[in-house]
Design goal:
- The chain is globular.
- The strands form 7 sheets. A 4-stranded antiparallel beta sheet has the order 3-2-1-28, with no helix packed on it.
- Helix 2 packs antiparallel against helix 3.
- It is α+β, with helices and mostly antiparallel strands.
- Helix content is 21%, strand content 41%.
């Protein structure tokens, strides 16, 4: 008994030291391209974090008990499903709510798993209690369909080409595969016990399933809809969240009960040694997401008020971001400023006269300044001025193809500002 007490005290002191060191450890320089959106269990807001500075810059109101957050592929919208039976739609340029969608089913007491189609035209929202999925048109916010799933759809993901929807049925111990053109079942794949979350590889060839009660990860070949491998981290317990890095080379799994992370090599479907992510490296890890460049993974702590940042190049904890309340899920997307930078880069390649290039850059610079001040309306007006200048120079200082390319990019910037 005395030895057990000493062990317990040593573990506690080690944990305290780890937390102190994590807070003191400086963050490495991160690319100025991303925002992270974090939901909270007992709050009616999401936190918006600037990935470059690792600071919470604002909060956005959402429904109570926000379960999951997803971001559209183009980075322009964030969708948050809440137990209040709503989906909150957020414009990422202004970090403001542009719509609140009330789900049509009165028994949406446990909605949360949510996915967005690659083209951004549809969102899929699952109800863990009613065992249904609602399909919503993101242009009109009308319900397009409601269909049945397996028992307790705990997570859902859309394939990169948008043709398949994968559903982790926790109590059915299966993953259902749906054809998104008909919302009909294509296959039901038996996996481990309590499939809790899943992730699809960037090429769509594999689905990785975190099985909470069998403490392993099932690897599904999407061409045959069959399990081709099972990865078991014998030092891990209760896998919760799972994500694939953007290059598809690694899978990261958060293990709730062992306060640890598992790293999987996707080429061999074997565990990668990661001593820096072992016991008590991440306290009660839950939701997980990778940055667009794949260099970092963000992990929520479902019983603590923080967000842990993991450096995927060293597989170690890079730092901890303190939050006001307990976190649940996290999603990461590009900043709207990146669209402006793309427009600037395209302009620089055209070899225009100095006067014309300066005139066009002046509009872009004014838009960037307005965005920096949070004035998206003024920023949009400046980009409109850019478009007018490009149109006026078509066939003069700009060729037809050059003007059309710049205008398309500029219109994309405006769409990011105002929806």
């Amino acid at each position: 008994m005395k030895w057990n007490l000493i062990q317990a005290r040593s573990r506690f002191l080690g944990l305290v030291l780890l937390l102190v060191l994590s807070f003191l450890r400086p963050f490495p320089a991160l690319a100025d391209t991303s925002f992270a959106y974090v939901t909270h269990i007992y709050a009616t807001h999401v936190s918006v974090i600037d990935v470059e500075t690792s600071q919470v810059i604002t909060t956005v109101p959402v429904g109570l008990y926000a379960f999951e957050v997803v971001i559209s592929r183009d980075g322009k919208r964030v969708y948050v499903a809440s137990a209040s039976g709503t989906v909150t739609v957020i414009n990422t340029a202004s970090h403001s709510v542009i719509a609140t969608v009330t789900l049509g089913q009165s028994n949406y007491v446990n909605p949360g798993p949510i996915a967005v189609s690659p083209d951004g035209g549809r969102i899929y929202v699952a109800d863990l209690t009613a065992d249904i999925i609602t399909v919503i048109d993101t242009n009109t916010f009308n319900t397009l369909d409601v269909f049945q799933t397996g028992d307790a759809p705990n997570d859902i993901e859309v394939s990169p080409d948008g043709t398949r929807l994968y559903v982790a049925n926790r109590f059915s111990e299966s993953v259902s595969v749906f054809d998104t053109s008909t919302n009909g079942v294509v296959a039901n794949v038996t996996v481990g016990i309590w499939p809790y979350s899943l992730a699809v590889s960037p090429d769509g060839g594999r689905v990785y399933v975190a099985n909470q009660n069998s403490n392993n990860v099932s690897v599904i070949d999407t061409s045959t809809n069959s399990v081709v491998a099972t990865v078991h981290d014998r030092k891990a317990s209760a896998p919760w969240g799972i994500t694939v890095t953007p290059d598809g080379s690694r899978v990261y799994v958060s293990n709730l009960m062992t306060n640890s992370m598992t790293v999987i090599d996707t080429a061999s479907n074997t565990q990668v040694p990661a001593p820096g992510l072992g016991y008590f490296s991440v306290i009660r890890p839950g939701g997980i997401a990778a940055t667009p460049d794949g260099n970092f993974v963000y992990v929520t702590s479902v019983y603590n008020k923080n967000l842990t940042v993991i450096d995927t190049r060293t597989n170690s904890v890079a730092g901890i971001i303190p939050l006001a309340t307990r976190a649940m899920s996290v999603a990461i997307g590009l900043k709207t400023e990146v669209l402006i930078e793309d427009l600037q880069a395209a302009l620089a390649t055209l070899g225009l006269t100095t006067g014309l290039e300066s005139a066009l850059l002046a509009s872009i610079g004014a838009a960037a300044d307005s965005l920096e001040r949070g004035n998206t309306t003024s920023a949009a007006n400046q980009i409109e001025a850019f478009i007018n200048k490009a149109e006026a120079q078509t066939g003069k200082g700009l060729t037809q193809a050059q003007a059309e390319n710049l205008i398309v990019l500029a219109e994309g910037v405006i769409e990011g500002f105002l929806e």
